[in-house]
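Data deposition worksheet. Section B asks for the primary sequence of the deposited chain exactly as it was used as input, without tags or linkers unless they were present during the calculation. Section C holds the resulting structure in token form. Section D is free text for depositor observations; keep each observation to a single sentence. Incomplete worksheets are returned to the depositor.
Section A, Depositor: J.P.
Section B:
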Amino acid sequence: MPLQTINHNGVVVIGIDFGTTFTGVAYDYIRQGNQGPSDITPLPITLWPASSATEANSDSPKVPSCIAYTSRGAITWGQQASDEQGSILWSKLLLLDEHDLQTHLKNSDHVKQARESIQKTGKDVVTVISDYLAKVWDHVLEDIIRARGRQFLNTRPFHVVVTVPAIWQDYAIEKMSRALKKAGILNKRPGCADTTHTFVSEPEAAALAAINGHNKYDALEHGQTFVIADLGGGTVDLISFRVKAIQPQLLLEEVVEGDGGLCGATFLDQAFLSCLEKKVRQEKSKLRSLQSWQQMHKEEQKRITNTVWEKGIKRKYYDGQPGYTIDLGAQGRRRPNILLNA
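Section C:
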């Protein structure tokens, strides 16, 4: 069977933002002759596997950076990885040696739990991350095939761009490169040129995405300074940039060393659950037949945390909201609810 014709007129650029708590992927086909970022319209992957086969795929630009190994050796990932399976979160932070972690990360329970969870698997952190990325990559390729067709995918070369923290040292980036290779992302594809890859710092990627997304290239001036607030799921980082050049391409330089802390959206999720459990306990003291949060059915817990909280209250909250009534689901003949005050 003859090899498929290699397409020399462009490249499929696939961006992977492997985050501490969530991962996002977008891609675009860049033809020869594209003049600049304004000619590019990245297509984000927005459908990810649901937590169970009975549910519709999750419609979200992000998927949890979570993996679990079942007792039978199978791998579950994203929404499918559950706490019961010993899911591993925050693995990305372990690519840095402990003495290079920022103080607020080094002493974090999340980092300690991630390290303990990985040790239980008997695998190293690069293998765990590569296993996760392999699942993400397979899903991304399937999504591209559905959108553009197998012929499109099989006849065009790939260039993969991966974001990394600005504070990462070379050895951590080298570990990430090994994870990409082990995941099969850089594998040779028959009939296509070799897959290439580059790394870009997360704050620089955030700055370029914000500028491009709001079409603000014309508003930039040489020497202009601005601050990027990178609000992630686990960490929040503040980075200041100065415009070093605009033509022939935009160049940014960091003004002062960035800083950050453990105050991402994950901690907001934990605060919500703590508040909810406390409210349920208070109501149970008045109504003994009421189920505690731990006694509630797993499906009801998922509905509340995913639909009611993640896709509802968390995204629609505004200052001054009097409170939210939360349906706790069917409990015998009753369907109780509780009020969360602002």
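Section D:
The chain has a mean pLDDT of 85.
The first helix runs from residue 103 to 106.
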